[in-house]
Amino acid sequence: MARYIGKRLIYMVITMALIATFTFFLMKILPGSPIASADKLSPEQRAVVEARYGLDEPLPVQYFDYMFGLLKGDLGISINQFKGADVTDLIISRMGPSAQIGFQGMVLGTIIGILLGMIAALRQNTWVDYSSTLVAIIGISIPSFVFASLLQYWFGLKLEWFPVALWKDGFMSSVLPSIALAMFPLATAARFIRTEMIEVLGSDYITLAKAKGASGSEIAFKHAIRNALIPLITVLGPMTVSILTGSLVVEQIFAIPGIGEQFVKSIMVNDFSIIMGTTIFFSVFLIVVILIVDILYGVIDPRIRLSGGKS
Amino acid sequence: MEKILQVKDLELSFNTFGGEVKAIRGVNFDLYKGETLAIVGESGSGKSVTTKSIMRLLPENSAEFKNGEILFGGRDLTKLSDKEMQKIRGKDISMIFQDPMTSLNPTMPIGRQITEPLLKHQKIGKEEAKKVAIDLLRLVGMPKPELRMKQYPHQFSGGQRQRIVIAIALACNPQILIADEPTTALDVTIQAQILELMKDLQKKIDTSIIFITHDLGVVANVADRVAVMYGGKIVEIGTVDEIFYNPQHPYTWGLLSSMPSLDTDEAKLYAIPGTPPDLLDPPKGDAFALRSEYALQIDMEQNPPFFKVSDTHSAATWLLHPDAPQVEPPATVIERMKKFPGSRYYEGGAI
Q1: Contact A210 B121 (CB under 8 A)
Q2: Which residues on neighbouring strands pair with residue B94, listed in sequence order?
Q3: How many CB pairs under 8 A join A and B?
Q4: Does B107 touch chain A (CB under 8 A)?
Q5: How many CB atoms lie within 10 A of CB B81?
Q6: Distance between CA atoms of residues A48 and A136, nearest Å
Q7: CB distance from A234 to chain B under 8 Å?
Q8: Nearest CA of chain B to the CA of A7: how many Å?
Q9: DSSP string covering B155-210, please?
């Protein structure tokens, strides 16, 4: 197991280097300059500013500087959004709210989704099943920002249960954005679990469990759910991506001072280092999630447990 | 002998989109204490459905009891609630399934799968249940049972898995063990081992077995009595010798003739012509009449009742009616009947 993880870590480093390289050159190709009101500056002033951020160096030098910085965990400094601030510090300071709504959304979405899918499978072809399918279709087809706006309108503005767009009331402020983010994982989990549960419930070992005298709930929770969870793990990766991209917009709508919000703003003002830094941060996060997913497979399904990896 | 289970006039249908499939159309049999009753018949004859209906393992939303009763311990199993059935399943009546590769939960250590019925039905603690489970594994011939308790099904071979399934079935010393083609999915050498094991265990724990199979070789090996099913009905029932050496129903003749034998000169194996009846719209008379070269006019119109051949042997065919014409069974069957005292072809000697 340790060897497997070690190998995976090496691959991860290579992947990250490629992503960093790719993003770096893409950024350089992009038109526009990070220097605000660049046209108003005289060539001399401009040269001074560029020198300060190392933008006057030839491209290969800039590239290697950046990559060496990365090795030391240095993502560079913000060029215009937060002049001179360290990007690593900026991301860390913004992580809290993003992580909170992302985590809450993911947990809420998957748990309710799993339950919904299970109930639908156990009550197949009844109104319970049909309404759960409807919820799943809505959750998948309507983007999170539409939900965000609707939630904001109804529960924020009309009913005044939660703050509309204010990150001041701690948990209460996080409820609506978390729900908005939860819709996609919820729908995905419900769909997957329903299909999988129906198949599992029809399998021989469930009949055997029934023949042992197990009750309906024992069959569902002791025998069926673990087997039905296996394919859901596969979509955990894409679900994380949806939470990340979803949070870009949702953070804007709810004015949450998170990474997403910062990322969107930095794109608007061409702040190279923040765009790069956030992209790399998101990529690392995603790659780590994928590794965790692969390890989780073995935990849930003993058949794919790696040799040497005892439970 | 003590009757442990009585199935009386059982009728069961599946409600499908295509209509009502009459899967069991009036089945009667008794199971005696300590015996092995084999139910044979081709696919779709209703043998599995019959036993699954005893266990009430059929989908409740489509399978429906139309008539009859299943008497066990003074209670009619067709009328019990699901809660009451849960107390019987795995404790008084347990089951072994056809495919050991799929009948164990792949994500649960086998130890837990064996202790599950013990913890459920017997008032014992986890530690004690573990000890019982280890003993059970030893009983079914699993080497190093202590080590294997923590392993998962994929770490066992097919034959070993079937031994585990048997251990699970026997955990609570059931009065009735239903084996639904337990050796069909295994290769021949393992089949023999599993059959030996089952016979051996039956003696040790004194349980009655209902053994479903379409393999007549297996029947001859394990059964005390045999019920032949066709088209959702039992067409002939008797002791194993009576069925093999003095069969009366044309369908039993067909089955026996289509069994490969070492001492025939025939180059080609006999096959019963035609296909099984459509149970969405079962034939009016004898369901086998359309495929039978011995069919009488009355077979097309009226369902034959059971005619007694001996105290233990009866068959549902009009050929046994006193007014029926005398017909010659197939040659291979006559060869068999020659060895059976009491048959009209008996030539002396013993089976």
Answers
A1: no
A2: B177
A3: 74
A4: yes
A5: 7
A6: 56
A7: no
A8: 26
A9: GS-HHHHHHHHHHHHHTT--SEEEEESTTTTS-HHHHHHHHHHHHHHHHHHT-EEE
User: Three-state SS for A266?
Assistant: helix
SS3 assignment, position A125: coil
> With the CA atoms of B51, B56, B62 and B65 taken in that order, what torsion angle do they form, in degrees rounded to the nearest 10?
80
The CA distance from A198 to the nearest CA of chain B, in Å, is 13
Q: Do residues B247 and B216 lie in contact, with contact meaning Cβ atoms separated by under 8 Å?
A: no
For residue B84, give the H/E element and its range: helix B82-88
Compute CA B188 distance to the chain's CA centroid, rounded to the nearest angstrom: 19
Write out the H or E segment, with its range, that includes residue A239: helix A225-253
Distance from CA of A216 to the nearest CA of B (A): 9
The tokens of A269 are what? 């003002």
Q: For the CA atoms of B149, B155, B161, B164, what is the dihedral angle to 10 degrees?
A: 0
Among candidate residues A287, A246, A242, the one with its CA nearest the CA of residue A263: A246
How far is B183 from B196, CA to CA, in rounded Å? 11
CA distances in angstroms from B326 to B123, B244, B294, B329, listed in the order given: 61, 20, 10, 10
| CA–CA–CA angle A201, A185, A229 (5° rounding) | 30
Q: Which two tokens stand for residue B326?
A: 């005398």
Q: What is the rounded CA–CA span in Å between residue B39 and residue B211? A: 6
Residue A90, token pair as written in the block: 């900026």
Following CA atoms B113, B115, B118, B124 in sequence, which dihedral angle do they give, to the nearest 10 degrees? -160
Residue matched to tokens 């009491």: B342
Segment A104-127 shows an average pLDDT of: 90
- ∠ Cα B345 B350 B351 (to 5°): 85
- Inter-chain touch B102–A214, beta carbons under 8 Å: no
Instruction: Give the neighbor-by-neighbor strand order of the sheet with B3-16.
Output: B19-32, B3-16, B63-72, B75-76
pLDDT in tens, B131-187: 999 999 998 989 999 999 999 999 999 999 999 999 999 999 999 999 999 888 888
CB atoms within 10 A of CB A18: 11
Which ipTM did the prediction report?
Answer: 0.86
Nearest CA to B289 out of B280, B276, B279, B305 is that of B276
Query: Please, are residues B254 and B271 in contact by the beta-carbon 8 Å criterion?
Result: no
Q: Is B34 left (phi over 0), alpha (psi -120 to 50) or beta?
A: left
Residue of B80, B107, B173 to mutate, interface with A, max A Cβ within 10 Å: B107
Cα separation, A81 vs A101, in Å, equals 24
Neighbours of B8 (CB within 10 A): 15
8-state DSSP, A86: B
Q: Give residue-wise pLDDT tens across range B58-115.
A: 988 889 999 999 999 889 999 999 999 999 999 999 999 988 899 999 999 999 999 9
Question: Any chain B CB within 8 A of the CB of A126?
Answer: no
